[in-house]
TrEMBL record:
Key enzyme of fatty acid beta-oxidation. Able to isomerize both 3-cis (3Z) and 3-trans (3E) double bonds into the 2-trans (2E) form in a range of enoyl-CoA species, with a preference for (3Z)-enoyl-CoAs over (3E)-enoyl-CoAs. The catalytic efficiency of this enzyme is not affected by the fatty acyl chain length. One of its GO terms (cellular component) is mitochondrial matrix. It is found in: Mitochondrion matrix. The keyword Lipid metabolism applies. It comes from the Eukaryota. This is Enoyl-CoA delta isomerase 1, mitochondrial. Its main location: mitochondrion. Keywords: Acetylation, Fatty acid metabolism, Isomerase, Lipid metabolism, Mitochondrion, Transit peptide. CDD domains: crotonase-like. Homotrimer. InterPro entries: ClpP/crotonase-like_dom_sf, Enoyl-CoA_hyd/isom_CS, Enoyl-CoA_hydra/iso. It catalyses: (2E)-tetradecenoyl-CoA = (3Z)-tetradecenoyl-CoA; (3Z)-octenoyl-CoA = (2E)-octenoyl-CoA; (3Z)-decenoyl-CoA = (2E)-decenoyl-CoA; (3Z)-dodecenoyl-CoA = (2E)-dodecenoyl-CoA. PANTHER family: ENOYL-COA DELTA ISOMERASE 1, MITOCHONDRIAL, ENOYL-COA HYDRATASE-RELATED.
Length: 324
């Protein structure tokens, strides 16, 4: 147990992305625009709210802001749990910013990929208990963000009161639909989350799961119907950033908050040591294979055929949005 604790300290007890990989980071002021951090030292709970309109897609700067925010919260010993949420009520995160992948700058591309690897190291390996509040869509790397957390609650969707149209969020690794493959470590994270056969099927088909199915395969831990709650807790209201202060009666955020509170009450050393049991080897593997993974990614993504698929995908995405 002692050696486990010592190893837990080694991996989780210090600022992982400072000590393990010296990549560039934005100043906190800029990072705070992309990811809003709020903390409540009394309850030991923090909230990281992704705020990169229109879709919280992951550019290099967004990845760096996520890592910076985790680092800042981890440095506060009073905080044990963090909720990862979004200012966009319909999109948790649209995954990688696809414009980073099309006709990429050859110097930026590896740095961009390093920044995503760093999110894996910092979020999946965080000492904090992490709860993803998935209000809206979470495709590809958006799903990865959720899987890197300890617990996932997802909205069951809602009905637009004006148009009466139903909004049903989806989650999954849909990369094959873009003509690319999920990176091996992201695919393996899906295997660890939903099991071998479900992951094998979902990876090949690029399945995006609606909430009920995501729950059935174990991709999320809970789904929450949208009906507004009758009352909100003051502590949650205080934690919400001004951009989403009006969400205090949102049952999804309330559910995420209650789960964060459950985690915050577990003795942290025990919680962190048990988190290591399942995550340590994967974090170390990423660190050991980081350069190889980056070369693999850059080589794959710059292939002519892959660029063709990605360009067509980005075009379709823009056309779809323009037609709205
Ligand atoms: C053995 C293996 C071998 C090799 C592998 C090695 C390495 C791996 C290689 C490559 C791996 C690369 C990994 C990629 C992972 C990813 O994350 S790829 C990104 C995948 N994301 C998506 O496919 C999502 C695309 N978006 C959507 O489907 C929809 O936008 C969404 C359902 C999220 C929301 O729909 P809706 O509410 O209708 O909004 P709009 O579609 O209208 O979008 C609003 C605006 O947002 C912009 N946008 C959306 N998504 C992205 C994005 N991912 N990046 C950048 N921008 C995005 C969209 O264009 C609209 O903008 P506009 O209004 O036009 O300004």
């Amino acid at each position: 147990m002692n050696s486990l604790r010592a190893r837990a300290h080694l991996l989780f007890g210090r600022r992982s992305h400072q000590s393990l990989a010296p990549h560039q980071h934005l100043s906190p002021a800029v990072a705070n625009d992309l990811v809003i951090s709020t903390v409540d030292e009394n309850s030991g709970i923090a909230m990281l709210t992704m705020n990169r309109p229109p879709a919280n897609s992951l550019s290099m700067e967004m990845n760096e802001a996520i890592c910076d925010s985790i680092k800042t919260i981890e440095a506060n010993a009073k905080i044990q749990s963090v909720i990862l949420s979004s200012t966009n009520p319909k999109i948790f995160s649209a995954g990688l910013d696809v414009t980073e992948l099309v006709s990429p700058d050859k110097d930026r591309l590896p740095r961009f990929w390093n920044s995503l690897q760093q999110v894996y190291i910092d979020l999946y390996g965080s000492r904090l208990a992490t709860v993803a509040a998935i209000q809206g869509h979470a495709p590809a790397a958006g799903c990865f963000l959720a899987m890197a957390c300890d617990y996932r609650v997802m909205s069951a969707g809602d009905i637009n009161s004006d148009t009466k149209k139903k909004h049903v969020p989806t989650i999954g690794l849909n990369e094959t639909q873009l003509g690319i493959a999920a990176p091996p470590w992201m695919g393996q994270l899906l295997v660890r989350t939903v099991g071998f056969r479900q992951a094998e099927l979902a990876l090949a088909l690029g399945t995006l799961f609606p909430p009920e199915q995501a729950l059935a395969v174990g991709l999320v831990d809970d789904i929450v119907p949208h009906q507004k709650a009758e009352s909100g807790e003051d502590q949650l209201i205080d934690l919400l950033p001004s951009q989403i202060k009006d969400q205090a009666l949102n049952p999804l955020l309330q559910r995420a908050y209650s789960q964060a509170r459950i985690y915050a009450k577990i003795p942290p050393q025990a919680r962190v040591a048990s988190k290591m049991v399942t995550r340590e080897e994967h974090i170390f593997r990423m660190i050991a294979k980081r350069d190889e993974d980056t070369q693999h990614f850059c080589g794959f993504v710059t292939q002519k055929a892959v660029q063709k698929n990605l360009s067509a995908y980005v075009e379709a995405l823009k056309n779809k949005s323009a037609k709205k």
